[in-house]
């Protein structure tokens, strides 16, 4: 990827910031135009009545150009932005090595939301279509699988991680991203009312509390997040916010599932 680097780095050892080149900015603009066209056309006609050629024509590009950016019309609406995913992976890689995987992923994820909040109406329109169509909703969920794979790889590359940690890291990523996805759809269900950042933060607080305190896991009385106190408390209990030094303790929780018994009805 061609970029112009700003030769500055944070005191925490994060990689240098990168400014997209003119070519990359043009590609991002084309991708955004195709996505807007897809949302507008599907919103007015319905998914079955819109073709890739329709979307390409509305964005003033060829169908061949469309496929340089998206694999299908469903991908244009419910797929993840590769630039946003790359940014999230970079933010995660730049987090301090002293942070536990859940804390590092949470911080990187919340920081990356600024890009989504820059155009809330566009995001809301996309999410409304996704929520209303089971096919798009299924594609939306599957699109996050690739994101999760890359995030697991980024966490595994952090200092102190071992090959045996991968199941734990996969669980951290899967639960965190699921909570974020549910938060986005919840925000959409309320018509985009309030801050998406705060909505995601509240859902992550519930996750950090172990899903046990629905009424108390959100914002504190002073409006601040409870994630840090939850993280400190869970370090001693092997919870979501445990420190890297508790790796062996958490490994014992790998197989916690048991088969459910099914009840037979009378003949």
β-sheet strand percentage: under 5%
* Rg, nearest Å: 21 Å
The arrangement of helices and strands along the chain is: EEHHHHHHHHHHHHH
Give the overall shape: globular
CATH architecture of the largest domain: Orthogonal Bundle
Share of helix among residues? 55-70%
**What is the fold-level CATH name, i.e. the topology of the largest domain?**
Tetracycline Repressor, domain 2
What labels would you give this structure?
disordered N terminus, mainly alpha, 13 helices, Tetracycline Repressor, domain 2, globular, 267 residues, Arc Repressor Mutant, subunit A, disordered C terminus
How would you characterize this protein structure?
The chain has a two-stranded antiparallel ribbon. The longest helix is centred in the first third of the chain and has 24 residues, at 22-45. By secondary structure, it is mainly alpha-helical. Mean pLDDT is 77; it is low at 1-15 and 215-267. It is globular. The protein has 13 helices and two strands; from the N terminus they run ββααααααααααααα. The protein has helices at residues 22-45, 52-58, 63-69, 73-78, 82-93, 101-112, 114-117, 120-132, 134-156, 166-189, 196-208, 227-235, 247-251; strands at 3-6, 17-20. Helices cover 60% and strands 3% of the residues.
